[in-house]
Amino acid sequence: MKYNIKIDDVGPDFWEKMDALGIKRFTKRDGRIYQYVSYDTALKIIESNCLHYSTPNSFNDPFDLTSGLLDTSIAKEDLVKLVTDGFDASEDERQKIIDYNLANPDLIPTLFAKTLEDTKSDIGITCFSKSYLKTLMWSHYANKHSGVCFGFSFNQVAGDGIMQLTVRYTDKVEARNYFKETIFSIYNWIFTKSKVWEYEEEVRRVYIKDKGLIPFDKFELVEVYYGVRISDDQIKKIQALLKVNGYDNISKQSTMKINPQTFDLIEHKL
User: Are residues 114 and 245 in the same domain?
Assistant: First the structure.
């Protein structure tokens, strides 16, 4: 007897529902996305031609992919559908499974909650912002403005286990039932964060069944910004590495400067 997890077509109104929630697909026509990194990490990205896709368990936000966003309670009609559609078994075996789980109502919710929690160890996520002018992002992720911000335009943003969507920010943890709206609940789980992170304007690129160092096409790296505190020698080293490693599609390189009139950053094109 084997359980088959089936991913059905999301349906014609799925993305309209997602858009209304605040989770949107981010494609090439929506613009470029930016990743803030330290100087040492920038060198590694250029030399390896890879980005690191981390598991959510390693993120600095303990609420990332919180279990509170997923409701794994199951109604009788959903249990019957789950067993009927998902198990290769005789009708008599299926009925025994249904009867057993009705007599033990916590069994399936606990099992699926554990399975989904374990899934966090398999998912790979790398995070971007819609802007390269985020002062706090430079402080937090680019080693106090001494790092680099890379601008990317990815050709593949969906399919083959890849998702690239904007993050939804909210004040409340509202669970979606996994059995009643399976795919929708998973997207909501992965792409929902607290409003305290709203300033990041995050776009997430997710591999469902892969993690670690994953290569990107060199032509997808299109912009490079250097932090206020990076040295001229470090800029020259990065530029030399970009050239020798064949990053030929970079349309803009700029250094960030302090705006003397406001608490903002301005760019100086190189």
Answer: no
Mark whether 153 and 186 lie in a shared domain. Answer: yes
Residues making up the chain, counted from first to last: 270
* CA-based radius of gyration for the chain: 22
Place of tokens 């680019």: 142
Measure the CA–CA gap between 65 and 111, rounded to whole angstroms. Answer: 17
C-beta of residue 227 within 8 angstroms of C-beta of residue 198: no
- 104 & 216 share domain: no
Q: Strands, DSSP E only, in the chain? A: 33-37, 50-53, 70-71, 124-129, 148-152, 158-159, 162-166, 168-170, 176-177, 192-194, 202-207, 212-215, 221-226, 252-258, 265-269
Nearest-5° Cα angle at 127, 179 to 163? 45
The number of folded domains in the chain is 2
Nearest to 269 by CA among 161, 164, 158, 132: 132
* Helix/strand/coil for 103: helix
81 is in which domain, residue-wise?
Answer: 71-119
Are 184 and 142 members of one domain? yes
Residue 100, sorted as left (phi over 0), alpha (psi -120 to 50) or beta, turns out to be alpha
User: How does pLDDT run across 204-244, given as a tens digit for each residue?
Assistant: 999 988 899 999 999 999 999 999 999 999 999 999 999 99
Which pair of structure tokens corresponds to residue 50? 């890879």
pTM for this model (two decimals): 0.89
Give tens-digit pLDDT for 70-100. Answer: 998 988 888 888 888 777 778 888 888 888 8
From 167, 141, 160, select the one nearest 52 (Cα to Cα). Answer: 141
Rounded Cα distance between 48 and 152, Å, is 16
